[in-house]
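Worked example

This section walks through a single chain of length 94. The input is the sequence exactly as stored; nothing has been trimmed or padded.
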Amino acid sequence: MGLPVSGLVFLSLAATCAIVSGFLVYQEIGEVNRKLSDEERIPYLFMYPGKMQKIRTQYERLYPKARVDLWRRLFQAAALVFLALTALFGGFLR
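Given that input, the structure is written out below as tokens.
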């Protein structure tokens, strides 16, 4: 038995939100790297919590009025909510 249609819809929404969030992280890194020296630049690969905190701190310091980080966090939260709904409607929590 496969995943019900509602589960597939929520899984698709979760994946879409995760992809958009990923693009927004890369946008933040690019904008931060434009203002940093070559030695201070942040690499694009291998994300981990400490690195994400550094990106966020630098981004907020360099662009205090920008909203990209807020949108990234909203899309990450939406991805988690849709993933939980996938588990709920997909029957994984029975």
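What to look for: The chain has one domain: 5-89.
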